[in-house]
């Protein structure tokens, strides 16, 4: 388990270092982003991240491919997904999935992904600002996204005052989590 956690952390640092070195705009999203925000309040409340997911401008994909391939990643487009495999023998679980800024991840999602103008630099990498991340998590609304929002609620970063800040389509999703945090 410790090795799995360390591999994700090293992958996060490797990806962010390559993109920073190429001076490309990006944001870490997903598990690692939620964990980074939770850690600003309570490191002990951070869940283990399963993968590293990044948000890029579609127009920067070719530059990101060049930068990440120089760092040992292998680009793959499969089943309409863009990803970077962490080495020649890497499995899809070792991939860094890519989502594109300002685009819907799935056609049925109520909102597109945030823009990179909503990104913030943390200590070792860039992630989405908290509000943009919460919107992205509530838009996806999978169980793991709901758990990440519950973690943010649990450490006091998100509360009922957020109901006035969110797009109307996301308000019922947050309200449900606030009213029944145990599911």
Question: Describe it for me?
Answer:
The chain has 183 residues and is an alpha+beta fold. It has a domain at 2-129: 2-Layer Sandwich (Beta Polymerase, domain 2), CATH 3.30.460.40. The chain is 39% helix and 16% strand. It is built from six helices and seven strands, in the order αβαβαβββββααα. It has helices at 2-21, 31-39, 61-70, 130-140, 143-154, 171-179, and strands spanning 26-29, 53-56, 74-78, 81-85, 95-100, 119-121, 126-128. A five-stranded mixed beta sheet has the order 1-2-5-4-3. Helix 2 (31-39) packs parallel to helix 5 (143-154) and helix 4 runs antiparallel to helix 5. The chain is globular. The model has no long low-confidence stretch (mean pLDDT 95).
């Amino acid at each position: 388990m410790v090795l799995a956690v360390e591999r994700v952390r090293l992958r996060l640092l490797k990806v962010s270092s390559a993109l920073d070195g190429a001076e490309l705009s990006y944001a870490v999203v997903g598990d690692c982003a939620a964990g980074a925000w939770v850690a600003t309040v309570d490191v002990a409340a951070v869940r283990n991240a399963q993968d590293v997911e990044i948000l890029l401008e579609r127009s920067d994909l070719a530059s990101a491919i060049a930068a990440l391939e120089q760092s040992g990643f292998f680009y793959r487009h499969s089943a309409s997904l863009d990803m970077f495999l962490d080495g020649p023998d890497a499995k899809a679980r070792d991939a860094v999935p890519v989502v594109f800024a300002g685009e819907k991840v799935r056609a049925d999602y109520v909102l597109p992904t945030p823009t990179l103008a909503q990104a913030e630099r943390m200590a070792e990498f860039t992630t989405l600002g908290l509000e943009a991340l919460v919107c992205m998590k509530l838009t996806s609304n999978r169980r793991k996204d709901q758990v990440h929002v519950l973690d943010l609620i649990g450490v006091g970063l998100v509360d009922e005052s957020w109901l006035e800040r969110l797009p109307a389509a996301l308000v019922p999703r947050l309200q449900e989590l606030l009213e029944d945090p145990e599911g």
